[in-house]
Amino acid sequence: MSVRTLTPDDAQAFRALRLEGLRLSPESFGAHIDDEENLPGAEFARRITPTDCAWVVGAFDESDILRGAMGWFRERGAKRAHQSTLWGAYVQVSHRRIGYGSALLLALLKRVDALPALRQLQLHVWSENFAAKSLYAKFGFRFVARHPESLQVNGRFIDEELWSLSLPRSI
Predict the structure, then answer these.
(1) Three-state SS for 52?
(2) 146-155, long-range: CB within 8 Å, 24+ apart, which pairs?
(3) Dihedral angle at the C-alpha atoms of 121, 126, 131, 133, nearest 10 degrees?
(4) With b meaning 16 or more CB within 10 Å and e meaning fewer, what string describes 130-149?
(5) Is 125 in contact with 163 (CB distance < 8 Å)?
(6) Which domains does the chain have, with CATH numbers?
(7) What totals of helices (H) and strands (E) does the chain contain, helices first?
(8) pLDDT tens track for 3-49
(9) What DSSP character marks residue 117?
(10) Element containing residue 151 per DSSP (H, E)
């Protein structure tokens, strides 16, 4: 397995992975498959084009196939620039529980720990996604709040949780 920052050259693979995640794990995303499946490839390339304030890391198998991804962005503006968000975390079912999630999160954390004046990394997670919550807790994230009925997924309301990690941290 290898982990690296995605570039626009990875847009097609990222699009396929993201749509798979939206289809198979709809509770794990704020976006809906219907809203994203007709977006042009250029939009997916734009989303993963690395900048100083946003990027996506991807985990690739030994055949260089993208098996997981995790995004990050930094808030803008004088009052919020110390905060950042982890978004869009997804690992294919066939590659779960073998270290892909940990490798993605470790790569992301190593990178954000080096950023000046960044004090917080936050994320939203489905309240019933116990595997993801266990992974986040292992890396020092703490539960902050529960948002009841945050998303409506397939006709039912689900709760999301806000988790936060203080930065910088020692890895």
Answers:
(1) coil
(2) 150/124, 151/27, 151/30, 151/126, 153/26, 153/27, 154/26
(3) 40
(4) eebbebbeebbbeeeeeeee
(5) yes
(6) 2-118 (3.40.630.30)
(7) 5, 7
(8) 999 999 999 999 999 999 999 999 999 999 999 999 999 999 999 99
(9) T
(10) strand 142-153
